[in-house]
Every structure is written in C-alpha cells, then in structure tokens.
Amino acid sequence: QHNIYILVLFFQTVAKFQVRTRDDAERAFEECREDFPVPDDIFEKFLNYEFPAHRQTNCFVKCFVEKLGLFTDSRGYNEKFMIAQFTSKSHKDLETVRHGLEKCIDHNEAESTTCTWANRVFSCWLAINRPVVRKVFA
After folding, report:
1. Spacing of C-alpha 78 from chain mean position
2. What are phi and psi of 71, to 5 degrees?
3. At 77, phi and psi to the nearest 5?
C-alpha cells in the first residue's frame, strides 16, 4: 500500500509538469538569446545543444532550462521533471537520464551563482545525454 501511495505522489508531481516540444525549445532559445545575446556562431552551437564558454553561456543555459520548466533558483533542477521531459519519447532512455542525474545533480553546495550552477549541472548531464536531448526536441 505504501508503494502505491509513493507512485500516486510521483504521478501527481509529474502531472503538474508539461512536457515541452521542439517548438517550446526553439521559442526558449530565441527568448533567451534576446536576454543573453551571443554571436551567431555561438548561437548555432547552442541550437545543437553544445554550450561553449562565452560570457553569456551560463545565464543563457539557466534561462533555457527555466523556460523548459526544469530549473528554478530556489530548488535547482527538478529531477522528476527532467525524467518526464527526457523519457517522453522513449522510456528506453530512462537509465541514461537517471545516470546523468545521479552523476551531475548538486544542490549548489559550492554556493555558485545560479547561472553557474544551472550550467555546471546541465553541461555535466548533457555530456551523457546529448543524443537523448536531440531526439526529444527533434
């Protein structure tokens, strides 16, 4: 009975999360570019889910993951939402997504700026899950 209760709580939490589409990701990229302008060559890499060092990269990534509903300043990354988003096209990706979360999620013990925190975790996770992200937003 306890396990059923936990499953119900998990699905209620995930039910509050709206899985984002390719259009949502493209809109987030464009909106974040307005707030954190980068040169065209850098932006082209961003569109391919590669985030090279640039003075705007950290805050651009934070903006992007916030607009996707995956990150907040107060909580950091929502692991359940990350799983829901990046297993939405294939549950076969669950282990890879989870592995990346286990390896990369932190609670900003380093007390970095939220932009640095958001990019540090996402870049680490993305190194393991870039093909999954590209597939979900294809």
Report:
1. 9
2. -140, 140
3. -80, 140
* 81 and 132 Cβ atoms separated by less than 8 Å: no
Check the CA dihedral 51-115-70-31 and report its sign.
negative
pTM for the structure as a whole? 0.87
Q: Contact at 8 Å (CB) between 36 and 56? A: yes
Q: How far is it between the farthest Cα atoms of the chain?
A: 55
| Interatomic CA distance for residues 117 and 61, integer angstroms | 10
Reported as a single tens digit per residue, the pLDDT across 39-53 is 999 999 999 999 999
The answer to whether 117 and 124 have CB atoms below 8 angstroms apart is no
Q: What are phi and psi of 76, to 5 degrees?
A: 80, -145
